[in-house]
Amino acid sequence: MTAVALAVTAVAALVHVYVFVLESFRWTGPRAARVFGLDAATARTTAPLAFNQGFYNLFLAVEVVAGALALAAGHRTAGAVLVLAGTLSMTGAGLVLVASDRSKARAALVQAGPALLGAVLLAIAL
């Protein structure tokens, strides 16, 4: 069960790494415009904010990966704490996204769904 939980949390981490790349390095490009519904002027204006936000997503992914590595190395408590802190933070961010703009429900589900599922599976496995 732990392996399944970590596989699901890896998906959550990959989603956040992808969003990091979009927000921090591709914000003014066509892919980010499609994903985030941006026009060129808004993208240029908000690029510094998106750059910073992208790194938050990266740090959450790093936290989950570090926890998974710690679990794999036999550090059960430290690993679980890192994975759960990262995935539950991802879940919280998804909830804030949908609470702030209901039209972002799909994006919030992509952001929070795998993270919450992975956290629940890990809690059951422990």
From TrEMBL:
The keyword Transmembrane applies. It holds the Pfam family DUF1304. The chain crosses the membrane at residues 54-73, 80-99, 105-125. The keyword Membrane applies. Keywords: Membrane, Transmembrane, Transmembrane helix. This is Putative membrane protein.
